[in-house]
Amino acid sequence: MENIADKTKESIRVNQLLFNYKHKTPNFGSLPISMIWTEKFFAFLISFQLYNLIYESFLPIWPISWKLRYSSSYLSLLSLDITVISHVSESIPSSIRLAYSVSWLFIGSSLLLTGILASFFFSCSRSFRCWFLRHYFKAMDFLYIPICLGLIPTAMCRYDDCQITGTQITISLLTIIVCGVFAIGYPVFCIFIIKKHEFVCNDDHEDTLKTKELEQVLGISSEWLYEKMYFFSSFKATWLRIYYKPIRLFFSLGVIIVHAGLYEKHQPKIIILLIMFCAFTGYSIFIPIYRCGSSNILNILLNGSLLGNIFIAYLKLNDKNSQYMKDANLSELIYIINIFSAIVIGVALVIIFITRPKWPTNAEDVKILAASYRYVLNDFRNAQIMISRLQNTNEFMLMFIQPKSITGMIEILYKHYNMLQKENHPLQFTAIEQLDALTHYESLVKTKSLLISPVIIETLPIILDVLKRRGSELIMMSPVKRRILLKITALRIIINGRNTVPFTIGVDIEEYWRFKPKSEEVNDETMITIEVDSGRDVEERYPMSCLRKNESEFFEDSDDERVLETKMNREDRYKCRENSDEKLLQKVKRKKNRERKKNNNYEHQAFISRKMT
């Protein structure tokens, strides 16, 4: 038992430290990729909204006691007040109802503009895109039925005391446009995403989803974004299951259109809704939708409860002359159906909370994988970081990337792929995807990189050094001229190798040592001036200690003049500048000028003496 406990602790430690993955799991102990509670919450929420819509549609045929009970409850508040075309509140003026519909028009337009701008106009990182889509799709699912129910009756002028006037015509046209784009565009957008990535609809559907979820949890791949998780990971294979979300959205839209179109015609409305709910309930019973069995059971119970209430309304409508469906019996029957449904759903939820069902990709799989393939996963993660950085690199920066680093990562991944292929492990597909991406970027970098030649690699530090020394000149220039000068300087150094314009010395070192007075010693902190020949004289001062370290290293003969080639690193140069002394430098210059004057006097006297003779 101790060995098992030690192995468990070791796997958890590897999972935490190596992959920086916190074992603190949200959502009642599930992994971040788990949709087990999200899908249950939205199934319950949408069923509750449809439940309120059904009772609103059939309110004229319900008993009086049930009408009063419904109107005084908070059901409409919990479902975002979908009683916008209620028969109970007939005393509300039409202007207030119109303002209510205009508010839903504003909310729907805001959601549409946010989605369009975020998808096509704003560039953002993958992490922010994942976070945004996680909340955006949830908000769209949460507000789809209320917005459609708030806009469709206004577009069709189907609320009480509606008069087709100039203002109403304008609002109806705007509502038709927004409602059409929102109510039809969102399901079509869902279909587009599913069809674009329907490669998972194959025989290896479950293995593919599990592999992608493991990659997402362990951080070895960021390709499986939340839009794919949200539309794929909850459902099984085959297109009737994968396309469940747009099918459910179109079903809700059809219910709202029937309710608004047949506003006062109760009999055809009840018959059409009964047929629709029978078909949808049978669809959820005979074709299990979700990968999680508990979600399938809860979905069937919720749809069955809605179908039972519609069936009671159908019996009441077709039994007008019978005493069996009078108000007292009808009220008791409604109570029985709803209380029985609530008890069954409540028991199912209690069992679900007690049993704590696991997502197909659970924490045990993650720990085992992290302990068994920790080195492989670490390389996968490094490869994914490299791919992400290459994706965010522009063409100019590709010129300064060494292909050797990408080639080395490809060789490492190829070894891992051979091992995983022999074991027939699902992570071999991860290796294939990363190898394809890195091979593409390797060929791209080889065609554009300037760092293939060793000479250019050695020249790059000189470019940085030259640009740093000319920083004072660049500050006074405009940004456009500055960029042009930087590019010209870099290209000239790359093309000509190291044959750049040399740095001349303002003070001749040999002359200084020849005329240096013997009585006064010059310590190591004596400064000399170096003039950079760059079109303008820029003086830089270095102490003699910096030049005495290795004079052969700093001085080389040239055809025209003495050349100083400084090879000091940045830290030495900063130390030299910090230890500068202005007074000593001025003394050296004054002594040099005095010696020159003496020499001039000697030459003048010699010239006069020759003339005199």
TrEMBL record:
Q: Does the keyword Transferase apply?
A: no
Q: Where are the transmembrane segments?
A: 41-62, 98-122, 142-159, 171-194, 242-263, 270-290, 296-315, 335-354
Annotated spans, Disordered: 589-613
Arranged from A to Z, the UniProt key words for this protein are: Membrane, Transmembrane, Transmembrane helix
On the tree of life, the source organism's domain of life is Eukaryota
UniProt biased composition (Basic residues): 589-599
Annotated protein name in UniProt:
Uncharacterized protein
